[in-house]
Amino acid sequence: MKFKILILALTCSVVGIAQEKKLWTLEECVRYAEEHNLTIQQAELDLESVKLDKSDAIGNFIPSLNAQASASSSTGYSIDPTTNSFVNQKFFNVTPSISSSLTLFDGLRNFYQLNRAKLNAMAVQYQSDDIRDDIRLSVANAYLQILSNRETLNVLNAQYRATQQDLERTNELVENGVLPKGDLLEIQATAANQEQQIVAAENSVLIARISLAQLLQISDYENFDVVDEGYAIPDDAVLEITPREIYEKALTFRNDIKASEANVDLAEKDLQIAKGARYPTISAFFQYNTRYSDNARYPSTIDPNTQQIIPGAEISFKDQLWLQDGFAYGAQINIPILNGFSVNNNIKRSQIDVERAKLQFTQEKLNLETDINQAYVDVKGSYKSYEAAGKTVEARRLSYDYAKERYNVGLMNSFDFSQAQARLDDAEATLIQTKYDFIFRLKVLKFYYGIPLEEW
After folding, report:
1. What is the pLDDT of residues 389-445, one digit of tens each?
2. Structure confidence by residue, pLDDT tens digits, 83-142
3. Distance (Å, rounded) from C-alpha 203 to C-alpha 369?
4. Which of 28, 83, 366, 375 has the fewest CB atoms within 10 Å, i.e. the most exposed one?
5. What is the C-alpha to C-alpha distance for residues 435 and 71, in angstroms, rounded to an integer?
């Protein structure tokens, strides 16, 4: 019997461990998102696709080589391809061939295409890294949202426990005739309202967890949760750095800036390719071909003794391939003279694209400077809001303690006491919101300054 109980206990322990929630740290969430997020996976596919462009550009320097073969059968009066004479009979022939060509000069467009493919791969890599940066920030924001909602829930639970104590004390005073029953009803209403707030807060925590899980492409929401790392107000030393200094440093590593700069180089390379179309194109070619016909024979001979014509023997397939083969090789030049203004128009379009890319690059830098200045102002504003919220909580708590003392001695009715408690609840909720708002905004500003997310 004891053995069975031991086995049952061990089984329950194993099941409990299997069903235990995995608690994720912020670093684990970020790394998992980088490996499983669909947007990042699509960016990786784009990168693999542009790598093929480089392979195509390299292939332009390699001679082409193609093999061809055709087979035909004809009846009636036609030309025998093996004798080039008209015959009226049925014959079958095969004409295999091998051809090769190589571009010798095309205005250096092949070299420009290769350099463009390399630049395009760099640009797409920068874009992929920029997407990763955005995903990191989204994960961090969702992660902090869970902690914020959970801390709000903890505060509400603590307030509800305090209200339960007030409810028990008020109930005793009402039963002893010290307080009217209306005070008890008011406290009960306050407790019921807090229960509703707790349910809403629990739902907020659940929704925040689901949002982060979806961002990580995790479908097991029930067993997904994050580590409560207890974020305190971080070091705000970055605020001692001017926005201009943050901007100058951001220009050196921000992937969106690098991608925009690479687009300028791509546009300039496209302009070189377009200008290359003005030059002649020189190419070389080589071709080998042979043929076979089922009517091919060796030439007829005359018997010296009888003077009779001896028909020629049929030529075998192998011998025909060697006897009737031939080579062709040479070079050709194509000089553009007039092509409906297409060359000049393409050059002008490319010049416009260069100017457009430069303007976009300038705009990206202006946007970055604006974002950094805005982030700097937001951090300072959110910190002031946090400080103000902290002072409000202190004042509301003192007011609540004073109201509680007056209520306990019968100098304040339950309605006014409930209002004092409600004001304290609102102040503490605002403090939590402003705290995590400041934490996230400060992290964003540090991110602009180049501090890795793992060091948050």
Report:
1. 999 999 989 998 888 888 777 777 777 877 888 888 888 888 888 888 888 888 888
2. 666 666 777 888 889 999 999 998 889 999 999 999 999 999 999 999 988 898 889 889
3. 38
4. 366
5. 82
pTM above 0.90, yes or no: no
- Position 12 scores a pLDDT of 40
CA distances from 25 to 55, 76, 235, 452 (A): 41, 85, 20, 15
Q: What tokens were used for 151?
A: 């801390």
Which structure tokens are listed for 71?
Answer: 């087979």
In contact, 186 and 268? CB cutoff 8 Å: no
Q: Which residue has the higher pLDDT, 28 or 169?
A: 28
**What are the helix and strand counts (H, E) for the chain?**
10, 11
Thinking of the domain 20-65+120-279+336-455, which architecture would CATH place it in? Up-down Bundle (1.20)
Residue type, 128: S
- Which of 40, 46, 216, 246 has the alpha carbon at shortest distance from 140? 216
Query: How far is it, in rounded angstroms, from Cα 212 to Cα 25?
Result: 12
Task: Report which of 249, 149, 157, 232 is spatially closest to residue 194, judged by C-alpha positions.
Answer: 157
Contact assessment for residue 216 and residue 32, using Cβ atoms and an 8 Å cutoff: yes
Looking at 301-341, list the stretches that DSSP marks H as alpha helix, in order from N- to C-terminal side: 317-323
Token digits for 353?
């694209």
Cα separation, 388 vs 383, whole angstroms: 9
